[in-house]
């Protein structure tokens, strides 16, 4: 925002700048978990009295609280700089990781702290309203111990499918067999609440969370490749989320891979997903169909890779080469069951990649495991629900709900 | 930049903000070619007197001049708003489009105006210093009529290959058989000049130019797919250039397409380029090898597509489907010889895309021809050379050269 006086009046402009700065300061607190005022002064390029005023406002809003400085964080020879910590009874969000076989729901506070979590099976042939009712029941469980004064900012939902950015409509969740499902509305109706709800693709949210507090902190060109029955990617490019025109970017499971290959559920033949997707791997290792959604656990039971798994590793590496040639990422994070696959056939994956990628993009890329384990999409869902707090904390708290436990019990 | 007073002092901060605003205003003038003060006031959210002061400074710097308002651009009932136009003897850049068979060089002013152009053949087995000498000779020709007072801001070079972003090193230009060539330095040495020089990949620059003043104006998710002997893409995602960690993003010619296919120069087999690259098409239509680099002209001579060309069109569509699934673009611009191919087999290209892309990203994508014809990479090269003027016009003019014609003649 430019500092000149707008024709709309200096007062309004100053207020907008102040709220923007308040949100930016909160984003730093959220990223660090706890931070000193001296660090905030340095990060934001504002003077000490401005920082002190903003911190005071966050305390008044109940978002942050004073922390005793740890160790020797000092400003020159002066007093130790006071710390800013996340308030124990501060705002929180509900994050939902909707999987093909189970839903994980968590109450999550600023700093990405998982305060309470619950999960339940999902039947892949279930209707959306049935799944919505299960998710609503899990939400009731995770708010059971929430402090009455803590405000619920919103709900974020990670979806194994294509989500329209403009309104969160699930256009396609192939392994749930959902088409054009307004799942956010279904969950709110089941709860009888009206709070902001955000939905996004699971791999996109995995990339976001890994970028903010996982394996990709400080990495501006990052790809999170998710093996979650289907195969997809979330892409951070130049520090920005790659979303595409409608929010559908990253459907790399449907890159052409083997035109003579197996039929894909998308109607084509030989998509990459038909070689490295969970169904293909399950078939290769004779895993029963009802265990496909727990492929990571099945793979973790292997002591040695079979020939078929080594071939799958090579195919994963070959496909990653196409992705490295296309995006030139610094880091490729292998999420979902690809984590377990990497433990078994990491050498084949790396060799397949090295064999097929162009030398220039290959030389600077690293394969990495998720820093957040299997929670990346869940924590990413929390991030999109928290986002309004970082744009304008005052407005976001204004539309937040207090005493959610009481309201849901009533 | 935040409006608060920095610890470094209000004066310095104000000067930085003023230069930033001056550059932003110039970017608007550059984009529009000619623009009224009223439009600038509205676009920049600054008041009339601030805009008037900035416009006055651009005039003093010799960058812009007063224009008589065209038609009835009026502010309310008052006087017609004075216009801002690009100065006839204002700053310019040299843009170089290095092709596999020829180099095109132009003197280009603000507003993307091509003021003078020249071209010469390039021998694909030529050494880099020979090509550099040819390019230097072309540069001497295009500055022959440059006004002595007009400053040269810099040189931008479009390269058919992988360019390292950090220093402009050409890592690989496969069809020139160049590896790790510092072509910018070679051209400057041949000229005996020291001016800023920027290099980037031709498809990346095509995307940039089409986004600024071609088929992609106002389109934030755009892919320029370039058929230029090799096949590559430039990607604009969410309004930002997709560059990747090293600057190598967009090498979609090396997407795996047909694992049983022809060997590719990259060492793999069946890359997309082996099916839709110029050599593959030339072979299919029995075009002599020495005409491959002019494939667009050869294709323009066809009245009817052969069966082979129709198959190529289908393969182009199938590959575009992978790209649409990966990036979810709003517009795909077909550059280079793909323009000529589209005229012949547009139906097959569109059908191949529709047959293989996922419905959600397919529904909002449009195939388009370049708005700038075959000049997109050339105009993109001008953009990267002009860029310092939009960051800080005062500093950019400070490092510009005047009387380039005289210096090169001396």
Automatic annotation (TrEMBL), chains A, B:
Gene3D superfamilies: 3.30.420.40, Winged helix-like DNA-binding domain superfamily/Winged helix DNA-binding domain. Signal peptide: none annotated. Belongs to the ROK (NagC/XylR) family. PANTHER family: BIFUNCTIONAL UDP-N-ACETYLGLUCOSAMINE 2-EPIMERASE_N-ACETYLMANNOSAMINE KINASE, ROK (REPRESSOR, ORF, KINASE) FAMILY. This is ROK family protein.
């Amino acid at each position: 925002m430019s500092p000149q006086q707008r024709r709309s009046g200096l007062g309004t402009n100053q207020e907008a700048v102040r709220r923007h700065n308040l949100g930016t300061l909160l984003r730093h607190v959220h990223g660090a978990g706890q931070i000193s005022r001296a660090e905030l002064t340095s990060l934001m390029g504002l003077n000490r009295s401005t920082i002190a005023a903003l911190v005071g406002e966050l305390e008044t809003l109940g978002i942050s609280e004073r922390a005793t400085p740890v160790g020797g964080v000092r400003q020159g020879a002066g007093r130790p700089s006071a710390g800013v910590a996340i308030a124990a009874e501060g705002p929180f969000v509900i994050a939902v990781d909707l999987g093909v076989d189970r839903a994980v729901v968590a109450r999550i506070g600023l700093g990405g702290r998982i305060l309470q979590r619950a999960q339940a099976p999902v039947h892949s042939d279930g209707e959306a309203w049935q799944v919505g009712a299960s998710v609503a029941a899990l939400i009731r469980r995770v708010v059971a111990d929430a402090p009455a004064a803590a405000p619920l900012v919103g709900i974020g939902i990670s979806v194994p499918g294509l989500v329209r950015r403009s309104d969160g409509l699930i256009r396609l969740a192939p392994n749930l067999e959902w088409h054009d499902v307004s799942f956010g509305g279904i969950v709110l109706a089941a709860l009888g609440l009206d709070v902001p709800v955000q939905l996004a693709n699971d791999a996109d949210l995995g990339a976001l969370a890994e970028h903010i507090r996982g394996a990709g902190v400080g990495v501006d060109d990052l790809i999170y490749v998710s093996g979650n029955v289907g195969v997809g990617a979330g892409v951070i490019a130049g520090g920005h989320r790659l979303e595409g025109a409608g929010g559908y970017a990253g459907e790399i499971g449907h890159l052409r891979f083997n035109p003579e290959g197996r039929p894909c559920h998308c109607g084509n033949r030989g998509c990459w997903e038909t070689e490295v997707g969970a169904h293909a791997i399950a078939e290769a290792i004779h895993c029963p169909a009802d265990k496909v959604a727990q492929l990571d656990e099945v793979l973790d039971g292997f002591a040695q890779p079979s020939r078929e798994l080594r071939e799958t590793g090579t195919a994963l590496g070959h496909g990653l080469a196409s992705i490295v040639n296309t995006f030139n990422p610094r880091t490729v994070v292998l999420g979902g069951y690809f984590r377990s696959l990497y433990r078994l056939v990491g050498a084949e994956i790396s060799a397949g990649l090295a064999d097929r990628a162009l030398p220039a993009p290959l030389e600077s890329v690293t394969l990495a495991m998720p820093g957040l384990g299997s929670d990346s999409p869940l924590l990413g869902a929390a991030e999109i629900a928290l986002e309004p707090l970082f744009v304008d904390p005052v407005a976001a708290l204004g539309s937040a709900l207090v005493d959610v436990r009481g309201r849901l019990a009533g």
